Amino acid sequence: MAQVTMRVWRGDANGGDFERYTVEQNEGEVVLDVIHRIQATEAPDLACRWNCKAGKCGSCAAEINGKPRLMCMTRLDQLPEGEVTVTPMRTFPIIRDLVTDVSFNFQMAAKVPALLPPPMPAEGYRMYQEDVERSQEFRKCIECFMCQDVCHVIRDHEENKAHYAGPRFFIRYAELEMHPLDTNDRRDLIREDMGLGYCNITKCCTEVCPEHIKITDNAIIPLKERVVDAHYDPVAWLGRKIRRRTKRSASDAAVQPAP
Amino acid sequence: MTYEHHDYDVLIIGAGGAGLRAAIEVQQRGLRVAVITKSLLGKAHTVMAEGGMAAAMGNVYPEDNWQVHFRDTMRGGKYLNNYRMAELHAKEAPERVQELEQWGALFDRTKDGKISQRDFGGHRYARLAHVGDRTGLELIRTLQQKVVSMGTDVFMEHKVLTLIHDSEGRVAGCVAYQRPTGEFVTFAAKAVVLATGGAGRSWKFTSNSWEGTGDGHAMALWAGAELIDMECIQFHPTGMVWPLSVRGLLVTEGVRGDGGVLRNSEGQRFMFNYVADMFRAETADSEEEADKWYDDHSAGRRPPELLPRDEVARAINTEVKAGRGSPHGGVYLDIGSRRSAEFIRRRLPSMYHQFMELAGVDITKESMEIGPTCHYIMGGVKVDADTAATSVPGLFAAGEVAGGMHGANRLGGNSLSDLIVFGRRAGMGAADFVEGYQGSPRLDEAAVNAAVEESLAPFEREEGENPYDIQRDLQEMMQANVGIIRTRSELEYAISELDSFTERVKNIKVKGGRAYNPGWNLATDLPAMISVSKCVARGAVLREESRGGHTREDFPQASAEFATFNFAHSSPAKRWDGEIVTERSALLEMPGELKALLEEGH
Q1: Which residues in chain A have their CB less than 8 angstroms from residue B39's CB?
Q2: Which residue of B117, B150, B357, B471 to mutate against A (max A Cβ within 10 Å)?
Q3: What's the mean pLDDT when you consider all of chain B?
């Protein structure tokens, strides 16, 4: 019988340490299977979140060998041989063991101004597949919050959480902005209160997304463009235009975005 | 002892589709409402629903209407349904689905911009509104976002131990604990809506998560309500069977709706051999005829792979028993040889990833190995169809925890629509009840303290059993003896075993503290699992026939005698370890015009 040694962080807000568990490993098993085996045998009080065990609910996010992953979708036979280290998501406060306090995300969700559709015609809305597809991509999000976990704006900067919504909510805003029925304008809010400008497009969020949502390319960058467009007013435009003409230098030219 | 306390008009236990839809309704009435959930908001088992929600909108087949949907639901349920629930469901589902679009849902579209509808087993027309194969996620997210935008109070990661009554016997609230801290909380409310979902966690091979422990079923029983049809358990025909770690994981019926077929180890499309008389007139009798149907329902009759789930699950079981199964004890589900890779990835993206990542199988090229998995409980709390009221004043139930809507077998796609139709009705029923309420709810303090004490007992014992061992043994016992094919001797054995499980649960020892302790959490789930399992086994031994999600080896046919009543279970002692009484409860008499719909030879 194959065995695997798991190095699991155990503790709470007051601190903790790694514990090692060596348990049975069967063909095809994922990290969550062996975490469950540890709970059922040696450590029934080992805390972890999980629900669907099918990559659909996003509950079991943790850091496996230092990378945010869903425990239910990470096969042990696809990890490097040797010990497997499992730690809680670092960006959120610890509750216990692998469980973190993700309430930051629910606070951000509460700030999102809702969809504002026109009144529904008696026979229902008409929308075309090509018009709904852009927002459908973002609605695939399973709220595992791994994009939030990996985002360097908040990962090591607790102070930024007060004014930064994070990638999960940038795709939510993008979804609403691109929603065929929406008439709400959230662009000032996104720029001023949600901190879109802090994102400098390192694409870490896109890399960890288990739903393969192109967070940066399809949501954040288009959102940045829209927010800048909204900021346009004739006077500011003239000002920028004049400044650009008079102050253009080699270094200015180098940072101009491509047309 | 005094605990953190909250007062509301309506308390909703469960944050899946039914609970959230009920909350919206109550909040819109201007009442104070709270939702309590064992998990985080948005993680409910509703997300596991893949294929779609059934509503006779007629967007793809204009000849579809509520009458046909009603008929399909009753036939699928083998006529054991509460006809009034099936009627309301068929009539109201289209409006409920459209309403979701006002709240942000984005369904897949038809060419002319309407909500697209997909074929599913037992539905005469393509009727399931869907988003690829993640419709449940779309439903939960839409309702979640609506609830959040309304500012509804949601108590996440709170486990309700039991309902609490007032001195007049009305439901007055509940006692719960916060999972992160282990601290107890009491809630007083004028009405309580149970929306706790299913109970599939008591079987070994199940599509249900840790949450599906039948909490609401059990709490209703302990509160004095009746549970009906508990023997009717849906084993979904297509769960994954390999690797073992994912055994039971759901494979959407949408695979078959979109052209997938079942084959045995000899390569034969065996479902043609399993068409019951009841469905023969509407089912194709050759592969050629069946294959024409997918593109044009008037060019041929339905493929037998799209018979109701109970029929397909039994057929797979028989093939495997006859030695024509796959290497890991299932059969093959093949869509890769029948549809283009591009079509499969667009229509079934989750299935594609699920098999690729967990089983290393590319479903666009290879067949899937699948077999039946415990998926859904048709049985539940007996309710009034129009108001979702139970027999206990102030207690309501909606969604999987309620019984009657689906009869002996639920059609795929009828669950999500059930949630929004009866979630709303439960919210209306509870709000009406609150508006006529006199006085203010007072929790019986002794009952609160007793529930707290009982939940803490496993910490006090010097020695005792690991709750995980009890859960594992229970799952194995129920799988082996109260599974898809049942027989008297095994059921009687199960009933006596459940008595010994009751004693084992009283001897649990929990290690560690109260803060986020899954071992303790499981210890507090087990009483509900035992109560529910007892009702299932009792109903199963008494129903001496085979009907829908209840198949008896010793009584293989449906019996006219058993077609006229449900078995109703109650707990006179109102305790999890008390005796259960089971009685016959006559079906509602169906009005003539609805009866006529069933008799029409569509």
Answers
A1: 49, 51, 59
A2: B357
A3: 96
Contacts of B510 in chain A (CB under 8 A): 44-45
Instruction: Exactly one of B71, B124, B179, B236 is catalytic; name it.
Output: B236
In a domain, A33, yes or no: yes
Q: What is the ipTM of this complex?
A: 0.94
**Chain B from 438 to 477: CB within 8 A of any A CB:** 466-469, 472
Domain residue limits, chain B? 235-374, 450-570
Q: Does residue A126 sit in the same domain as residue A17?
A: no
User: Which whole number is the average pLDDT over A39-64?
Assistant: 96
Determine contact, residues A49/A60, Cβ cutoff 8 Å. Answer: yes
Residues of chain B in contact with residue A57, where contact means CB-CB under 8 angstroms, are 42-43, 47-48, 209
- Is there a domain that residue A255 lies in? no
A72 plus A149 within the same structural domain: no
Q: Which of A39, A50, A57 has the highest number of chain B CBs within 10 A, making it the mutation to test binding with B? A: A57
User: How does strand A84-87 pair with strand A3-12?
Assistant: parallel
Q: What is the CATH number of the domain that holds A23?
A: 3.10.20.30
Which residue is listed with tokens 């029925």? A181
The two tokens of residue B501 are 């499980």
Report yes or no on A247 lying in a domain: no
Tokens of A135: 């927002």
Encode pLDDT of B145-170 as tens digits.
Answer: 999 999 999 999 999 999 999 888 89
Is residue A64 in a domain? yes
Segments of chain B scoring below 50 in pLDDT: 602
Domain count, chain A: 2
∠ Cα B144 B145 B149 (to 5°): 120
> What's the domain range around A75?
3-96
**Which of A45, A76, A97 is the best mutation test for B, with the most CBs of B within 10 A?**
A45
The CATH number covering residue A135 comes to 1.10.1060.10
Please check whether residues A114 and A229 belong to one and the same domain.
Answer: yes
Assess whether A134 and A66 both reside in one domain.
Answer: no
Same domain, A200 and A146: yes
Q: Indicate whether A131 and A66 sit together in one domain.
A: no
CB spacing of B354 vs A55 below 8 angstroms: yes
Residues in chain B: 602
Confidence class for position A245, pLDDT limits 50, 70, 90: very low
The pLDDT value given to residue A231 = 62
Chain B residue numbers with beta carbons less than 8 Å from the beta carbon of A120 are: 98-99, 101-102
In A, minimum Cα distance to B471 occurs at: A40
- CATH second-level architecture of B450-570? Up-down Bundle (1.20)
Taking contacts as CB-CB distances below 8 angstroms, the residues of chain B near A40 are 466, 468-469, 472
Contact between B328 and B241 under an 8 Å Cβ cutoff? The reply is: yes
pLDDT at residue A62 tops 50: yes
CATH T-level topology, domain B235-374: Flavocytochrome C3; Chain A, domain 1 (3.90.700)
b/e map B266-304, b = 16+ CB within 10 Å: eeebbbbebbeeebeeebbeeeeebbbbbeebeebbbbb
* The three-state (H, E, C) secondary structure of B514-570, written as one string: CCCCHHHHHHHHHHHHHHHHHHHHHHHHHCCCCECCEEECCCCCCCCHHHHEEEEEE
User: Among A56, A80, A96, which residue terminates a domain?
Assistant: A96
For residues A8 and A55, membership in a common domain is answered with yes
Region at B404 (left for phi over 0; alpha for psi -120 to 50; beta for the rest): left
Cis status, amide bond into A93, omega within 30 of 0: no
Residue B236 annotated in active site: yes
Contact B518 A29 (CB under 8 A): no
From B96, B247, B256, B543, the catalytic residue: B256
Annotated active-site residue B280? The verdict is: no
**Domain end (from A96, A123, A153):** A96
- Do A42 and A137 belong together in one domain? no
